[in-house]
Amino acid sequence: MIVQRVLPETLENGQLPVSFLQTPLWAAFKEKYGWKAHFFRVDSIFLSVLVRTIRRLGSIAYVPMGPEIVPISSRARRDLLTSLARELKPLLPRDTVFIRFDPPWEKSPGRSRIRKAVMDIQPPDTVILDLSVSEETLLGNMKPKWRYNIRIPEKKDVRVESYEGREAMEKALPVFYTLYTETASRDGITIHSSRYYRDLFETVLEKKDALTLRIYIARHDEDALAAIIVLFYREEATYLYGASTAKKRNMMPAYALQWQAIRDAKEAGCLRYDFYGIPPTDDPAHPMHGLFRFKTGFGGRVVHRTGSLDIPLKPVRYRIYSVAEWLRLVWFKKVRKLLRRGIPGNS
Predict the structure, then answer these.
(1) Distance between CA atoms of residues 179 and 328, nearest Å
(2) Of 111, 219, 257, 316, which alpha carbon lies 20 to 30 A from 79's?
(3) Residue 74: Cβ-neighbour burial (10 angstroms; 0-12, 13-18, 19+)
(4) Same domain flag for 114 and 184
(5) pLDDT, tens digit, 9 for 90 and up, residues 332-345
(6) Total structural domains in the chain?
(7) What is the pTM of this model?
(8) Strand 272-274 to strand 45-54: parallel, antiparallel, or no bridges (unpaired)?
(9) Which residue range(s) make up the domain with 160?
(10) pLDDT tens for residues 19-78?
């Protein structure tokens, strides 16, 4: 294995990463939020590594959706990440505590031979729709209720608007964020500030890369009912964020938005549409079970990836970080929600 530091400007079309998370553009966006990007060539494969310094602990390294190499066996996966971490170590800050990989690998049978991270960064479970088939086949693969719900918005005069570029940032993003704030309050989820999403759009405009963002808004009369942000990159479109109001939900605006985005992705030459995140199983007791049902109803293939995997470089500091990360996870997943339920008006 040969690992060399490279400049992103030297990338040719044939060397572009498969995932948008591995692009220099995404790295430039994350640099606005405390990360430092490092770029390498692993044999012939491009690799983006993001590094962040944590005071009194050291640096942590993160490889989103990489490396884009898919070994088959669990042993081969472990050997690959171990070797890659060994080669990367002298090229990263000396105080790097661990390297966290989020590889594009589906789960393999049996016990994993690699240390699982306390929490996943990217959603390991998702639904991917094959866009290489005709629209008729796409509709035929959906659950009958989904085909019916797609037709309801049109009958009720719900219109879908699409925005990209500066118009999306200036005109549509404020509408999206208003809906997103309402969604977060209703569902008890944590979201970034509006500046975060604006910075994402600004980075896309600055870089003028092969990556584009679109905002879709479903309206009835003058009411904005729902909105989604979809990212288009090479052969894949990714549904990043969704938001809605509690008004007029019987008009099924979310179905109209997804169907329009799916058709646009197909027209743009994308071969896949990634719904980007579902619960791991069809468990009615899961708090996000409705999300599982909604996304799987469109007929895509359910994918279970390995999730985040860690290679510790400084074992003692890594254990300290893992404990802190576990406590943070418990706070956000359990304690915070229990406290929220106890606040009047949040029941």
Answers:
(1) 27
(2) 316
(3) middle
(4) no
(5) 665 555 545 554 44
(6) 2
(7) 0.92
(8) unpaired
(9) 133-270
(10) 999 999 999 999 999 999 999 999 989 999 999 999 999 999 999 999 998 877 888 899
